[in-house]
Amino acid sequence: MELLAFFVDLLMHVDKHLETVLLNYGNWAYALLFLIIFVETGVVVMPFLPGDSLLFVVGAMCGVGLMSYPTSLAILLAAAVLGNQSNYTVGRFFGPRVFHWEQSRYFNKRAFDQAHAFYEKYGGVTLVAARFMPFLRTFAPFVAGVAQMTRRKFTFFDVTGGALWVGSIVTAGYFFGSVPWVKMNLEKIIWAMILIPGFIILWGAWKARRKAARAGLSHR
């Protein structure tokens, strides 16, 4: 419970925590930012770190001169790309070994081939879109690795999605983070950044399930 309370506090008051780190440790704050984004995108069991809200607050800090905008972009982009690469590598290495291939009753070769084909065809769009969705962005690169998506294709969309994610949210914070209304409602904005993508995911999953159910009925 204490750990959960810590992460909730970090999510809700990331601006205050970051400002404290900046005042006490100076440029070491960049190392902390790198670590948080790398872990959120690179460790499949850590999807609850404050990625979106942290990027926005970093942009706001850059806007008032407390941090360097180009340095922040470079460090955060590197963390996002390398985190995904790590997650993908873990999925690619351990996925087949967990299933033990055809010798395991848990391994479905047909399902595996379908997942691989899906990621080769649509995985790029999935990876880019997942960057903007909490939780999903942590699992998407891992699943791409398990599905054996080619490294070259994965890297292209990893860099593209990372640049769009980091660039857009940090820039939004840079221009709007110091606006009085935004500062007064930052907690609500952070909640919106967490909940709205989540509702979109749930709605999309419900719609896909409903469509699949209808397709199943039509084939009877």
Provide the domain count.
Answer: 1
Distance between the termini: 49 Å
Uncertain regions spanning at least 5 consecutive residues:
none
Approximate helicity band: over 70%
Shape: globular
Number of helices: 10
Question: How many strands, which pairing sense, and closed or not: the largest β-sheet?
Answer: none
Summing up helix and strand content along with how strands pair, one would put the structural category as mainly alpha
- Reading the helices and strands in chain order gives HHHHHHHHHH
Number of strands: 0
Q: Which whole number gives the mean pLDDT?
A: 76
Outline the secondary-structure elements:
Layout: H1 2-12, H2 14-25, H3 28-42, H4 51-63, H5 69-99, H6 109-130, H7 136-146, H8 151-176, H9 180-184, H10 186-218
Helix pairs in contact: 2-4, 3-5, 4-8, 5-7, 5-8, 6-7, 6-8
Please describe what this structure looks like:
This protein is mainly alpha-helical. The chain has one domain. The chain has helices at residues 2-12, 14-25, 28-42, 51-63, 69-99, 109-130, 136-146, 151-176, 180-184, 186-218. Helix 5 packs antiparallel against helix 8. It is globular and about 55 Å long. It starts with a helix and ends with a helix. The model has no long low-confidence stretch (mean pLDDT 76).
Could you list some keywords that capture this structure?
single chain, 220 residues, mainly alpha, 10 helices, 81% helix
